[in-house]
Amino acid sequence: xRLVSFVHDGRPACGVVQDDRILxxxxxxxxxxxAVLEADALADFARACEGSGQRVPLAGATLLPVIPNPGKxxxxxxNYETHRxxxxxxxxxxxxxxxxxxxxxxxxNQPLLxxxxxxxxxxxxxxxxxxxxxxxxxSRERALEHVAGYSCYNDGSVRDWQxxxxxxxxxxxxxxxxxxxxxxxxxxxxxxxxxxxxxTRVNGDVVQDTGLDHMIFDVPRLIEYxxxxxxxxxxxVIATGxxxxxxxxxxxxxxxxxxxxxxxxxxxxxxxQNGIADEPR
Length: 281
Hints:
By secondary structure, this protein is mainly beta. It has helices at residues 33-38, 42-51, 81-87, 159-162, 219-229; strands at residues 2-8, 11-18, 21-24, 55-57, 73-77, 96-100, 105-106, 112-114, 121-122, 125-131, 147-154, 157-158, 178-186, 197-202, 205-211, 237-239, 261-266, 270-278. It folds into two domains: 2-57, no CATH class; 73-278, Fumarylacetoacetate hydrolase, domain 2 (Alpha-Beta Complex), CATH 3.90.850. Strands 1, 2, 3, 4, 5, 6, 7, 10, 11, 13 and 16 form an eleven-stranded mixed sheet that branches. A five-stranded mixed sheet has the order 8-18-17-14-15, with no helix packed on it. It has a two-stranded antiparallel sheet with strand order 9-12. The mean pLDDT is 97.
């Protein structure tokens, strides 16, 4: 099942993607997908969407970030050996983690904004997971039981601001610099994460290409680790890290500029596409 957040009749809405249509959720206590997950109501939600009678074309729909209002966005850095090596970082025993704010996210087909204080705007194609079942100190063995589903993520990075100190936060949180979408594929449709493949393209050229089995810390380990220092709640997002090939480590660097198009494709999940625009002054 593919779940989507979008704008319907001028208001935020959610629904189920079926072929080339969105089955629109009827008025209900489920105001958004986070509320659906908090209520543990995916099956009821799907039935309600099927029975609502409201259908809109997927093409042309104005999508929102998959979870527009996550309580937490936890991002994993340096989680592929190819990226660790290209950055020259040391081998570590635990995941590198930083956070994003919800208002730093954009949706599928919404432009990412290069801030006017920098020209060092970079791409980072990633797999994102969304928590469906709350938990604290979740064991590795039970970790996947807590996942509602998966999506594509572009952890757009303003590299010079990221390098101001050893903390990544400033360069990862300019408004509308990270993309999340196009939809959430429920976990039951992704039985083997290691079989998936991630490809990032800039203007049609492949810049990142890897199997998800090349992660240093796999999804169960990430959930186990993150849930130890913070409770994980329905709707929380974990972006699982990017492989090698980022623009900053190319010669010459490949910085994103207005008019460019970035696509993050993960087999079995979908394609997240965003144009690049300059931030309005």
